[in-house]
Amino acid sequence: MRKFKMFIAQSLDGYIATKEESLQWLMDVEGEGDNGYSSFYETVDTVVMGRKTYDWVMAEMNGEYPYPNKPCYVFTSQHHVPSQDVIFTNENVNTFVERLKSEEGQDIWIVGGGQLIAKFLEARAIDEIIVTVAPVLLGTGIPLFPEGNYTSVWQLKGSHIYNQFIELHYVKK
């Protein structure tokens, strides 16, 4: 059965971006290769993200879809015209998860952002959390885990050091 996996980077104090939505602090840290991105990317065939994350990604990529041959579901309450690779949805998270898990394929990557991650955690839909921590303190910003009703216990599956980054891999207990 397919799994829903989070794969994301955060600052040491738990932020995924500055208040201005900048990720420059990630680029300023010395990593190793692509910090495990390619290995992870090969395990998924579908991506899921919130609309704000989608808008940010598309702006950063000058309008070019960055995940070729991988369908993308974007959760939004606004109406958007779907494209070849992107499907906009406001489907119930539980229904969405059941449907995708029942389909054949590889695992599913929840790209972000924090609000969508919280919804999936509240639905108990995330199977694995892979978070790469950068040795940067931002003091303020967009939190990885906003407040929510998702108390849960996870088990450490493994860790990997990429120079100054550490990847922590957890599975649902």
What is the CATH third-level topology name? Answer: Dihydrofolate Reductase, subunit A
Number of domains: 1
Mean pLDDT, to the nearest integer, reads 95
Order of helices and strands: EEHHEHEEHEHEEEE
Query: How many helical elements?
Result: 5
Cα-to-Cα separation, first versus last residue: 17 Å
CATH level 4 superfamily: Dihydrofolate Reductase, subunit A
Write a structural description.
With 173 residues, the chain is an alpha/beta fold. The protein is built from 5 helices and 10 strands, in the order ββααβαββαβαββββ. An 8-stranded mixed beta sheet has the order 5-4-3-6-1-7-10-9. A two-stranded antiparallel sheet has the order 2-8. The model has no long low-confidence stretch (mean pLDDT 95).
Give a topology summary:
Blueprint: E1 4-11, E2 15-17, H1 24-27, H2 37-41, E3 44-50, H3 51-60, E4 72-75, E5 86-89, H4 93-102, E6 107-112, H5 114-122, E7 128-134, E8 142-143, E9 154-162, E10 165-172
Parallel strand pairs: 1-6, 1-7, 3-4, 3-6, 4-5
Antiparallel strand pairs: 2-8, 7-10, 9-10
Short description:
Strand 3 (44-50), helix 3 and strand 4 form a beta-alpha-beta unit. The chain has a single domain (4-172), classed as 3-Layer(aba) Sandwich (Dihydrofolate Reductase, subunit A). It starts with a strand and ends with a strand.
